[in-house]
Specification:
single chain, about 250 residues, alpha/beta, TIM Barrel, globular, binds 1,3-dihydroxyacetonephosphate
């Protein structure tokens, strides 16, 4: 029998947050206190706030993550950031392959695979994002797309300790739309099956997050779906009260 997976609620602040946003983090640290045993919590702020939040979170078990990393450790890549730099600033994880990176920066699954391995090189956990577009869902090819992205983006030496998978349907991100619980169950079950086929027990134990318009009002239903081991939250992670409302789904 496999051990139960401890859920993780991770907030992706995206390109939001000036120094003043640290007060929301402080409120989150306060509110999260006492929930540590039931659910893990992480914030992925813009790179400019990683050090400040990591410093602050020493009083808490809230982890800090980056939002992307370059595949190389150093070099002539103006404006990029390496996994080693994220780690140096206090991050313990990094999101790779978010659909906004795939769309805005043309990142392919091959690129994402390289970034995931870069994260491991620096000792970070990689949170690998996959998800279909509205058009692909309409065409009925969601599971094919998910399968392809999973195969291409997740490196062969992924384990349940170094890798988290986040299913984020592109059409649900920032739109207020969410798949039905049954749709989420179908995709997560398909992800689980392909991870188990490829990685055995490690695939069984890997955390699978759902992301896309998760809010306090829908968190309990979405987090209650089998094989959903937590959430990757965008907009609702910017306010401590909202993220705490989502974390409360595990109370
Ligand atoms: P929203 O929660 O704002 O829909 O964003 C989801 C997301 O992209 C998290 O990475």
């Amino acid at each position: 029998m496999s051990t139960p997976i401890k859920p993780l609620v991770a907030g992706n602040w995206k390109m939001n947050g000036l120094a003043t946003q640290v007060t929301e983090f402080a409120a989150l640290v306060d509110g999260y206190s006492g929930m540590e045993d039931k659910v893990d919590c992480m914030i992925c702020p813009p790179a400019t706030l990683i050090a400040a939040l990591a410093n602050f979170s020493q009083e808490s078990t809230i982890e800090i993550g980056g939002q992307n990393c370059h595949a190389s450790a150093t070099g002539a890549h103006t404006g990029d950031i390496s996994a080693e730099m994220l780690s140096d600033a206090g991050a313990t994880s990094v999101i790779v392959g978010h659909s906004e990176r795939r769309a805005d920066h043309g990142e392919t699954s091959e690129d994402v695979n390289r970034c995931a391995r870069a994260a491991w090189r620096a000792g970070l956990v990689s949170i690998i994002c996959i998800g279909e577009t509205a058009e692909q869902r309409k065409q009925g090819i969601t599971l094919d797309i998910i399968g392809e992205q999973l195969l291409g983006s997740v490196p062969d030496d992924a384990t349940s300790s170094n890798c988290v998978i986040a299913y984020e349907p592109v059409w649900a991100i920032g739109t207020g739309l969410t798949p039905t619980a049954q749709d989420v169950a179908d995709v997560h079950s398909s992800i689980r099956q392909s991870l188990v086929r490829r990685f055995g027990d490690e695939g069984q134990q890997m955390r699978l997050l759902y992301g896309g318009s998760v809010k306090p009002a829908n968190a309990a239903e979405l987090m209650g779906v089998i094989d959903v081991d937590g959430a990757l939250v965008g907009g609702a992670s910017l306010k401590a009260a909202d993220l705490l409302g989502i974390l409360n789904a595990y109370e």
